[in-house]
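User: Structure please.
Assistant: Input sequence and predicted structure:
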Amino acid sequence: MDIERQTLATSDLRDLLGASDAYMARLYPAESNHLVNIDSLLGRDFEFYAVKDGEMPVACVAIRLCDRYTELKRLFVKPEWRGRRLGKRLLSFAIDRSRELGLSVVRLETGIHQPEATALFESLGFRRIGPFGSYQEDPLSLFYELS
């Protein structure tokens, strides 16, 4: 299964992001969810990628292009596809793609109720930092950077 850049807001991609939205809404209140909609993900400030089973997207990640760094957004694997290392594949791909774009610093925001995600980030060398960009301090948020 290849990682493919997505350029169209298909109903299958909307469904995948809807599943991500529902998952995050179960974990965090709305004011602590920093989700980006599909129209933004397909815009000029982002590159949006998915892993598909046939034509069905089962996992995704977005790379937000900032001036001096990239920010990873919307890393999500459907629950029935977890445990197959798709999250690690997507994360490694996004790090490599950031470097290809000439940006050696990668940042992300995640939440405190996602220990599997934080363990993955830390296993790849991400370190905790304070809020960046437009983020504010939030007791439910964790901020990471990889240089």
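The mean pLDDT is 95.
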